[in-house]
Amino acid sequence: MLKNILDELVLVYLKELSFVKSKLQKENLNILKHLEFVVKELEKLKHQLEIIEIKSETKPVVSYLSQISLENKADDYKKVIKNLKELSGKLFWRYGYQEPSQEMIGKYAYTEVIGPEGPIYSEEMIIGFVLLAPGFYYPKHKHSQIEESYLFLNAKTLYNNAILEKGSFILNETGKIHELRSAAENPALILYSWRKQGGGSLKNYQLNLE
Ligand SMILES: [Fe+2]
Q1: Domains of the chain
Q2: Ligand 1 center to residue 141 CA distance, Å?
Q3: Which of 1, 33, 97, 99 has its CA at 20 to 30 Å from residue 19's CA atom?
Q4: Residue 194 CB neighbours (<10 A)
Q5: Are 13 and 42 in contact (CB under 8 A)?
Q6: How far is the centre of ligand 1, averaged over its atoms, from the C-alpha of 60 (Å)?
Q7: How confident is the model at residue 207 (pLDDT cuts 50, 70, 90)?
């Protein structure tokens, strides 16, 4: 199952990379570099897959995964979402905050699929999913030393006052403040990738959301 999701992630990021390359402008350069890094790391993992044991833990928001429809045959992200649904009970869903608010506890969680804590081991990259229940506001935050991308997989989502369509790809450069709000009528599923600013190990990196 992990091999399947890895194969799908390679396809998703390769497609994004070729899209960005096809309309390359100056402001896309950092996005291009980020995507090239992600694709290179994913290709490495395909050839040298290391799986580590993780504990699984669910969170209330995970029940909203079933509301994300897979009916549209032409959907680019259908397979990756299907793989996530199948895997979700085996993953470790977290809040990332020591004292999450009540709203967060009910309406938000993220899970890593690739990273130093597994289940697919990588020291220099983290790839995971963020899930927001309908109408959830994810407060402003930034990440020091981390470059983060978001790919909106299923629905319109409000990101820093802009309504982003499904399929939008965003790069949060190190230190950039960002916030999210899911639409009132659907949950929002977001694929994210992280790399350390300038490259390097993410081992023991503490998620300090400010
Ligand atoms: Fe973030």
Answers
A1: 51-196 (2.60.120.10)
A2: 6
A3: 1
A4: 23
A5: yes
A6: 20
A7: low
